[in-house]
Amino acid sequence: MIKFEDVSKKFPGDIVAVSNINFEVDDGEFAFLVGPSGAGKTTLLRMILRDITPTSGKINIDEHDLSKISGKDILQLRRKMGVVFQDLKLLSDRSVYENVALSLWVLGKNPNEVVQEAKEKLALVGLENKGDFFPTQLSGGELQRVAIARALAGDPKYLLADEPTGNVDSANAWKIVKILDKVNKTGVTILMATHNGEIVDTLNKRVIRLEEGHIISDKKGKYR
Known about the structure:
Elements: E1 2-11, E2 15-25, E3 30-34, H1 41-48, E4 56-61, E5 64-65, H2 71-78, E6 81-84, H3 96-106, H4 111-124, H5 140-152, E7 158-162, H6 170-184, E8 189-194, H7 197-203, E9 206-211, E10 214-220
Parallel strand pairs: 3-8, 3-9, 6-7, 7-8
Antiparallel strand pairs: 1-2, 1-4, 4-5, 9-10
């Protein structure tokens, strides 16, 4: 479970990114974070990762209070989390297979496990025949799917996706969301930031809407 209690975050210059945020995401849930640019979506995801810390309030992930967690425990907690970054962060000098496999090496998997799981994750996103390609050889939609495969390496409990359909056409956006929906049905908790109202409306999941750092609605259903 992910739980925010009265969480606020200010950046230098008295910039308020989010203010008095309260919500819970249950295990196995699929929830959208929606709202205009600057509403606070990415800030919330970064705080879940403990990439940044709240100015006030408390965030709990499972049994961990992130304000009290130690450095070692932060690393263990992050192993439960797969992340699809807005700018993808793929390594351009590594093949598609190597981009996925590297995450598994970091987790300490043995060579046989690395090969098997990397291939499984690429097959899950429909790129089983692109393992030897490099990022520059792929389309935008394919790059997003590589990023999802990498995020799923190690079978995380949580998947955080920051605008995974933001830079692709409609057909590829649907491919990506169908993959995420399939992953969610295996029990992975998904929190996805998006501007894509059509996808949100069609999937009929929980929608947490932010504006100017505040949650203004939290309900299952439509983008607006």
